[in-house]
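*** Query protein ***
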Amino acid sequence: QVQLVESGGGLVQPGGSLRLSCAASGSIFSINVLGWYRQAPGKQRELVATITSGGAIIYADSVKGRFTISRDSAKNTVYLQMNSLKPDDTAVYYCNLRNLYSPVPALYWGQGTQVTVSS
């Protein structure tokens, strides 16, 4: 009942920027958390940033000061502005939605978008 579609990934040089978008559709609760996670080859999936429907934000220490998460409630879309990209940022980035206080399964994932940072 929920679909998450990411876009905006690609290949950039170190120091460059990318802006990821994730459009959510379906049964989106008014109280929710939208976020970005990433998974590099050989590593576990890790949190990048989350933003609640109330605007509270959490960033991973590795991206603080470089990445900015935002959301457009009218469009049910979450964004991730990534600046000063490093090779270690290379990963598949996944959009995540968690419907809070839900009586049914409430965790959803997008298909992922590849971000590659290389010279």
